[in-house]
Amino acid sequence: MFLKSNPSSPADAVGVEHIDGLYGYALVLTRNRTEAEDLVQETYVRAIGAMARLRAESNVKSWLFTILRNIWLNHLRHRRTAPQVVEMDVDGSNVGIGVETSTDPYSLYVSEMERLQVRGAIQQRLTGHRPVVDDVAKDLHMSPRTLQRRLQDSGSNYQRVLDEARHQMARYYLTNSVLELAEAAYLLGYEDANSFARAFRAWEGMPPKNWREAQKAAGPSGVQKPN
Q: With 0-12 CB in 10 A as exposed, 13-18 as middle and 19+ as buried, what is 58?
């Protein structure tokens, strides 16, 4: 690919072993081949520098994906010069989600925006593990109790928003990337591909492999990258 391996170097061997998965994930994040290559290159360089401090029992794959994600988040922070805008759902993935009835349209809008902010924060942390409410609340500069109360006010809860986040990311990964199903399952925080397949079947009524094939057969689906 764009990184050349040196068989005599353990660091290079690790980089080559996981490079396809890293590149697929980087491509999903950036939607740009050049930026994805640069992102993997930077991940690889940083990993080499820290390889000597890595414990023998460490999960190298999770470690590399975390490095890549953190680099990307730092890039995003540097790019942002205005308050973040959270877009409303555009792909219909949340049809049927209950929202508390209110006669105040503005209150409904604010509740929906807060729920989408939580979902976006969860998606930023979906890299090989299940994000916990305490970490997501910290990212949003609020207490876990406040986060859960606001979700309750919107007619939702943390588990439901986590499922929404995973569902939307799963649709995007399967439609717009070359990630293997096992890699997608890992990035979504599932223990294994079977757990991911069961969840996806509950969402879409079919296994993820069949859904991906159906999307390819139907042509471009227009599933947009989650915000």
A: exposed
